[in-house]
Design brief:
Number of helices: 4
Structural class: alpha+beta
Helix content: 25-40%
Strand content: 25-35%
Number of strands: 5
Largest sheet: 5 strands, mixed
Order of helices and strands: HEEEHHEHE
Distance between the termini: 36 Å
Strand order of the largest sheet: 1-2-3-4-5
Length: 96
C-alpha cells in the first residue's frame, strides 16, 4: 500500500502531515511535509539536489499545492558538502 494511502487511512481529517519520510518510505534523503496547501521539501543527499526541480511536480496531482518550498538547512547536508538552501521552488507564497 502506498505511503500516502496509509497516512490518509490513519489521519483522514488531517490537512497537515509528512508525505514522504525518507528511509521509511524508501526515499533516502528526501522528506516532504504538507502544511494545508503548501508542500515543504527537505533534501539531505546530493542525489536529490540535482533532481530538486523535478522532484516536486509529481506531488502536484495528489495535492495541487499553492506553493512548494525547499527548506534545506539540516546539519546532515554538510556531510554531503551541500550548502543551505531555502526558498520557493514552485508557485507563490506571499509574506514570510
Amino acid at each position: 500500500m502506498p505511503a500516502l494511502d496509509v497516512r490518509r487511512r490513519h489521519l483522514p481529517e488531517a490537512t497537515s502531515f509528512r508525505v514522504v519520510n525518507a528511509e521509511s518510505d524508501f526515499l533516502s534523503g528526501l522528506i516532504v511535509d504538507k502544511y494545508e496547501d503548501v508542500l515543504v521539501v527537505q533534501t539531505s543527499a546530493s542525489a536529490w539536489t540535482g533532481a530538486k526541480p523535478r522532484s516536486s511536480p509529481p506531488c502536484n496531482p495528489f495535492f495541487s499545492p499553492r506553493a512548494i518550498l525547499e527548506r534545506n538547512e539540516a546539519a546532515s547536508r554538510k556531510f554531503e558538502g551541500l550548502p543551505d538552501a531555502n526558498g520557493v521552488l514552485a508557485g507563490e507564497l506571499p509574506g514570510r
